[in-house]
Design goal:
Blueprint lengths: L6 H9 L7 H13 L1 H8 L9 E5 L9 H18 L5 E6 L5 H14 L3 E5 L5 H10 L4 E5 L8 E7 L10 H10 L17 E4 L1 H12 L5 H7 L5 E4 L9 H8 L4 E3 L25 H9 L4 E5 L6 E7 L2 E4 L2 H18 L7 E6 L4 H9 L3 E5 L3 H14 L3 E7 L3 E4 L8 H17 L4 H12 L1 E10 L3 H17 L4 E2 L2 E8 L4 E4 L5 E3 L8 E5 L4 E6 L5 E10 L5 H26 L1
Parallel strand pairs: 2-3, 2-4, 3-6, 7-8, 7-9, 12-13, 12-14
Antiparallel strand pairs: 1-5, 4-5, 9-10, 10-11, 14-15, 16-23, 17-18, 18-19, 18-21, 19-20, 21-22, 22-23
Helix pairs in contact: 2-3, 4-5, 4-7, 6-8, 10-15, 12-13, 12-16
């Protein structure tokens, strides 16, 4: 043995050199012990943890990695929780994305659930995340599992758990699941059956048809879509993911049949060969699609992430490709829905929109201007799904549209998670209505700015360290900022600090404290005297802190000049904030 590996880590790794671990796993662990102690430490220093909503981590051998053994133990803990909640023949829906090992992880989950007497419906092929939420609701299941790491790099995979309503598990159920998982410490505790067990049924076709039927009913201008939809020229990329399963068929059913594909990114590929960071928020992954958009003289390029819950859009405006931000897509959609509901005399009684605390304030301003309520929730679409579920029971409000700045949106109540397929259809309908008038979505965006003022946002991810030290370092930064918060940013005084972990906000001048209404969460928000806002929160899945900046301008000479001014000012302030945080790491 090389020196430097703690004895308890070495002992834990050596346990994986014998039964029940398979030969391939043992070879991998032996290589780590002999050749790569740093990675061996990372693989065994902890047990992979089930957080709020599920797991996301690197694949490989080890207790802190995603593999069939850790998947099996997590699922065994989940099974105990399910049987406590639904002891009478519960049923689970399972699907998976295009990543490496996703199918085998889904099958392992199915075998364990069935081994515990739980009926399983598993899809025959990969499907998007929102399809799992839909399938759970469609079959009145006790819950669902989706194997995905969303837009993370190729070495990652994940395990998302949904509750009976099709929403990601939220408190108090997440804590109960975590407790049961912690009680499963060895593969010997896992019960499982063969994949051909009668409790496991393969599904897909019926659910896919029902899903598209649900989306088809959400059109606002079906006659225009069917008659004129082929005039809107689209380019689409699934970024090597599951979007090809539902996005093209959804678009065609709505009438948008003129679709070109980014051929190199079209096929499912766990290596993401032509989109190394398969995130529609990452401009380099859009370059092929933008080139095709220009060369084909198309109107709109749409890209979805590997599990097709997020969507990005690029518009040709004045012969130039304009990449829409996540916030811009959110406000365009909110404005379109409000305006369209009003124009078609379909005003929704007690209608409400939902955004997160890091979504642009313009979203709420638009909803309120049309006399709709807008509720803010913590970051994470599970909180939007939770709010929809509450309203479904209380009837206090009727859900219209939910949005996150991170390119996640939901229109309709067919699912309880963000859905890129319905958004592809809705954005195409919006673009068609603009094209009828000789305009683009960028024209509509500028119209919104002229009516409500200019709003500009930025987001950065500030990495702390490797996973074994990352949590400690990010917590150190947040703790330091709580103890010694900045009182000014680039000459602008901080006038209000909101601490969501402590549950109160503080007015700097008066020192007055008042309670925050949202649940406790490790988030800090700083409001400056010019009403610009900076928000910090640790990532729930990676060793980094996310920094959000928001600024707005009421008076300006032109939209173009005003946006440039906002962008430069916000960039300077974001640079300053990032420098302060880096010094604390």
């Amino acid at each position: 043995m090389q020196e430097g590996l703690p004895a308890e880590i070495e002992a834990k790794a050596k346990e994986w050199l014998q039964s029940p671990y398979d030969e391939e796993t043992q070879i991998e662990v032996r290589h780590l012990l002999e050749e790569d102690l740093k990675q061996c430490f990372e693989a065994f220093y902890s047990h992979i943890s089930f957080g709020t909503g599920g797991i996301r981590g690197v694949m490989g051998a080890g207790t802190n990695r995603l593999n069939r053994y850790t998947i099996g133990m997590v699922t065994q803990g989940l099974a105990h929780h399910i049987l406590e909640q639904s002891p009478h023949r519960p049923r689970f829906f399972i699907s998976y994305d295009s990543r490496h090992h996703s199918r085998s992880f889904a099958e392992e989950s199915a075998r364990v659930l069935a081994g515990n007497g739980i009926e399983v419906l598993i899809t025959k092929q990969p499907y998007p995340t929102p399809f799992v939420s839909f399938g759970c609701r469609y079959h009145h299941c006790s819950g669902a599992i989706m194997i995905t790491a969303s837009h993370n790099p190729p070495e990652y995979n994940g395990y998302k758990v949904y509750g009976q309503d099709g929403g990601q598990v939220a408190p108090p159920h997440d804590a109960k699941i975590m407790h049961q998982i912690q009680l499963v410490t060895h593969p010997h505790q896992v019960k499982k059956v063969p994949l051909n067990h009668p409790s496991i049924r393969q599904v897909g076709e019926e659910e896919e048809k029902a899903y598209h039927d649900a989306l088809f009913s959400l059109q606002h201008y079906p006659k225009d879509n069917q008659a004129l939809g082929n005039r809107l020229k689209l380019v689409y990329s699934p970024l090597h993911g599951t979007g090809m399963m539902t996005v093209p068929s959804g678009l065609r059913r709505w009438g948008f049949t003129s679709i070109r594909y980014v051929e190199k990114q079209k096929n499912a590929d766990g290596d993401f060969s032509y989109a190394k960071i398969p995130n529609p928020a990452y401009p380099p992954s859009l370059e092929m699609g933008i080139k095709q958009l220009q060369e084909s003289e198309s109107d709109l390029f749409l890209a979805t992430d590997p599990d097709a819950d997020r969507i990005g859009a690029v518009v040709i405006h004045q012969n130039q490709p304009i990449i829409l931000s996540g916030n811009q897509i959110a406000v365009l959609t909110a404005y379109y829905l409000c305006q369209t509901l009003q124009a078609t005399h379909k005003t929704v009684a007690n209608g409400a929109f939902i955004s997160t605390i890091v979504t642009t304030p313009l979203f709420k301003r638009i909803a309120n201007s049309f006399h709709y309520s807008c509720f803010e929730v913590l970051t994470g679409f599970k909180y939007i799904g939770e709010k929809i579920h509450q309203w479904e029971k209380s009837r206090a409000h009727t859900f219209i549209f939910g949005a996150e700045e991170s390119f996640g949106y939901l229109y309709g109540t067919h699912a309880r998670d963000k859905d890129a397929t319905i958004m592809a259809c809705l954005l195409s309908e919006m673009a068609l209505q603009q094209k009828k008038r000789g305009k683009t979505l960028v024209d509509l965006l500028h119209q919104i700015y002229r009516q409500f003022g200019l709003f500009h946002e930025q987001q950065r991810s500030i990495s702390s360290s490797s996973s074994s030290q990352g949590e400690e370092r990010t917590e150190k930064v947040m703790s330091s900022l709580r103890q010694r918060p900045p009182l000014s940013v680039c000459g602008q005084r901080v006038i209000l600090i909101q601490d969501y972990e402590l549950g109160y906000q503080t007015e700097i001048d008066t020192k007055r404290r008042s309670a925050l209404s949202l649940p406790r969460s490790n988030v800090l928000s700083f409001l400056l005297e010019d009403q610009s806002v900076f928000i910090l929160r640790p990532s729930g899945t990676e060793a980094l802190i996310k920094l959000y900046g928001m600024i707005h301008l009421e008076h300006y000479d032109s939209v173009e000049k005003g946006l440039k001014w906002c962008e430069q000012l916000l960039t300077d302030r974001m640079d300053w904030m990032e420098k302060q945080m880096t010094l604390l790491l």
